[in-house]
Amino acid sequence: MHGRWRLFRHDAGQASGPPAWAYVALFTACLLLGIWSARTFGAVVIWPANGVMLAALLQLHRRQAVSVLAACLVINLLANVVRGDPMPYLWLNAGLNLGQVCLAGLIARRVGGAALDLRRPRRLAYFALLAVTPAVLLSALLIASIAGVLQSYSPALYLFTVVRYSGMEILGLLIVTPALLLIAKSHRFRDAAPASSRETLGLMILLMIVTTGVFAQSLAPLVFLIFPALMLVAFRVSPTWVARAVILVTVIGGISTLTGHGPTTLTRLIAIPGLEAVPLVIHRLNAFYLFLLAVVLTALPVSTVMSARRGLVARLEARTRAAQEARRRAEEADAVKTRFLALMSHEMRTPLNSVTGYAEVLARRPSMDPEARDQLDHIQRSGEALLMLVEDVLTVSRGDDTLDLQPVTLPVLLNAALETSRSAAEDKGIALTLEVRAAAAAGSVMADRCRLRQALHHLIGNAVKFTDRGTVSVVADRIGEEVVITVSDTGCGLDPAGAEALFKAFVQSDDSISRNHVGAGIGLAVVKRHLTIMGGDITVDSRPGEGATFTLRLPLDPAATDPVVSADPRTGGDDPLVRMPRVLVVDDHPANREVARLMLTAAGCEVAEAADGDEAVDMARVGTFDLILMDVRMPRVDGLAATRMIRALPGAVANTPILAVTADAMPADAARCLAAGMNAHLAKPISHQALYAAMETLLAGPCPETTAVA
């Protein structure tokens, strides 16, 4: 059940359809048509007047509906007087018509909702079976009972009267009321049907021709020919036009049946005692009612099902378009975010390259006094911390899930992770220890070196930061198929209730303005993300004031080969006759070129410089270089275009190893460099160790396959 027991439409409902006077006029026309048909042919095919009243009751607001029903009652009484109905039929017919309409309308609102929408198949079925049929049967039983008492009907005539009255009234309500309701809502079907106006007109003409041809002859029962044309109309046009099509078939078939034409004249009638006085045309109309009932029960449900299907398809298409538009906007936003991250990464790395590069170069001078060296160490550590923060922000923002598995020696990686925090631990006077047990130290494992190093750096750095006295210890072991690494400290500890929240971005155990420790609150989020991508997990065991222990569990498989250890190119290998490499540094920033030159000359390399890609191509064409360090973002000719031009030069120069040294550090940036023909990618800011490792890889022999070395 969809509605309440309500006779009239809610006043807040939207008005639609014809005005009130049109219903009265149509009701009057139906009565006049019925009187003419009864006087001319001695019978009435269907009774459409009640269908008009029911449509007015369901469609109009209370005040208008009451006015229409009152006017129709008066007109009905006048028509009965004109027709010469005797008492009590004069008032009984009019009263039963009004009662039938009110009962059907009351039930229809209850089962179909306040705004009865017959476009839905279920509501159409409820309207026909639960509203129209009970109301008509009740009025039919009443009129037949009264007539049987007054005129002494036989049982056969009583039953015939009930069937005849029910068929005439039910068909009138099922044909006229849905048609008027659907026509009133025809504005909702303007774009609901696939057929154009020309196709709709053609289908209606086809149905009219077929129906006329079938009912114009009385030689064969060809009514089945009407249904293909009717189904074509139901499938192609809107329910409004299908209702009109049903009325068209009813009019053509009814006129033919009343005039003694059509397939209904072929009906073999059985002589039933007590019905001898019933005219032959009345008997034939009962057969015609069966045909009309089949038409109504076929065309209208199919039309509503197709309308519902077209509505679902339209909504699906609209939602698909909306989803595609949302996806397009999301992709555009993601592209904007990617460009923004790439730009920010580049713009932050470029000055960092000069800061950390000069600091590292100066720190390597043997003449540097201890105090200045200590200050340079602080500059380097601050630069490295800032670089780590940049990396963390970019990691959280870009959401890259790509793994770069390579052989990793755990003791070497753990020592490197500890070294970045050792100075801070010494400054605070706390012990920083590492224990790699035999099971973890045996051989190497396949891991993402960068992710694992970054995760360990954060955990060890946090342990040192939050420990004022005592010890920070790192223990590595292999238990079964997992590598287990614990980072323990004797610091301030944390509340277990808020431990899980620490692994969310920008969450801190103490975010007040009086906190003792600084930080962005993304380190542990990065750790959690890296471990999840590597298939591992992290847990924390801590109590306030009792320190904390973070446990990493990683399913790292043993590596088939050991990692390659890069040598410092300053050593020149074991052969004293080996010539030091000649390197071309291409960068539009003078400070970056100088940092690279200082690092390379410290290794004994011969260095040439170019300020953009155009100069680099000219120098590569006339000079002989063992290696080219190529920036990407440069004026006139960028590094990617310059690389393509060098690869297109004739001779051996086209095979010169090219190392991308750029602040474009996103994975997509490295892929673009390799696709342009570069052999490796090294992200700024650079260090002696990273630069020498990349050079060793590229200068170890024949030009290697393109790869990202950093």
Bulk shape:
elongated
Proportion in β-strands: 5-15%
Oligomer: single chain
The largest beta-sheet arranges its strands as 2-4-5-7-6
Main sheet properties: 5 strands, mixed
Number of helices: 20
Proportion of residues in helical segments:
55-70%
Low-confidence runs of at least 5 consecutive residues: 506-521, 565-578, 702-710
Q: Using DSSP, what is the number of strands? A: 12
Instruction: Please state the CA-atom Rg, rounded to the nearest Å.
Output: 46 Å
How would you characterize this protein structure?
This protein is α/β, with parallel strands linked by helices. The protein has helices spanning 20-41, 49-59, 62-83, 89-112, 121-151, 155-184, 197-215, 226-236, 239-258, 280-363, 370-398, 410-428, 438-441, 449-465, 523-533, 590-602, 613-622, 639-647, 667-676, 688-699, and strands at 405-408, 431-436, 445-448, 471-479, 482-489, 537-542, 548-554, 582-586, 606-610, 627-630, 658-662, 680-683. The strands form 3 sheets. Strands 2-4-5-7-6 form a 5-stranded mixed beta sheet. Strands 9-8-10-11-12 form a 5-stranded parallel beta sheet, with helices on both faces. The chain has a two-stranded antiparallel ribbon with strand order 1-3. The longest helix has 84 residues, at 280-363. Residues 506-521, 565-578 and 702-710 have low confidence and may be disordered.
